[in-house]
Design a protein that fits this description.
The protein has 178 residues and is mainly β. The protein has helices at residues 2-17, 34-37; strands at 40-50, 55-68, 71-80, 85-94, 99-103, 107-116, 119-130, 133-145, 150-159, 162-173. It starts with a helix and ends in a 5-residue tail after the last strand.
Length: 178
């Protein structure tokens, strides 16, 4: 009996560690089409928090996004609360079954993602400058389309499986000019 209780406790503990799965969002609306949402100019507002939830840095991003067929470019200009600036240019490729791959100069290897319903899960390793050195930090990035103009984004950062903190963002798509 004691052994079964320990096993049940271990199973519940592991289940509590499991995160969302992309298929959990298959029926959610509005349906996210990355080529449609990330097309045009977007503004994003975000922050980095450490493991304890303390805000470490705030930032804004202006994104200029274009697609040619299944190939997209997301040109991002970051402005951080300490006045520093950064540029990242994502090159995305749409694959079958809602899957995407992507590269950027500070991404190690290739990002892998998949969209279902209103959600997109993006997994990649970012070469992140920290106090004069560069850390390769893993991102488990989740985006949720809230409306045709607003998307929320939450990413967990980790290194060697240890959670370092989170990035939280809101994207707002600028209306297209007639």
């Amino acid at each position: 009996m004691k052994r079964r209780l320990m096993l049940a406790t271990a199973v519940l503990a592991l289940a509590g560690c499991a995160g969302p799965r992309i298929d959990d969002f298959a029926g959610e609306k509005p349906v996210l089409d990355l080529r449609e949402y990330f097309n045009g100019t977007l503004d994003a507002y975000g922050l980095f928090t450490d493991r304890s939830g303390k805000v470490v840095k705030r930032f804004t991003v202006v994104m200029r996004c274009t697609w040619t067929g299944d190939n997209g470019v997301l040109d991002e200009d970051f402005l951080y609360s300490d006045g520093t600036r950064q540029k990242r240019i994502w090159r995305l490729k749409k694959l079958p079954d809602g899957r995407y791959t992507g590269t950027a100069d500070d991404v190690v290897g290739e990002a892998q993602g998949q969209a279902r319903g209103n959600a997109f899960n993006w997994v990649y390793t970012l070469a992140l400058p920290v106090d004069g050195t560069v850390w390769n930090v893993d991102f488990d990035d989740w985006m949720y389309l809230m409306s045709d103009r607003v998307m929320l984004n939450k990413a967990v950062m980790s290194k060697w499986g240890v959670r370092l903190g989170e990035v939280t963002l809101s994207f707002v798509k600028r209306p297209r000019r007639p």
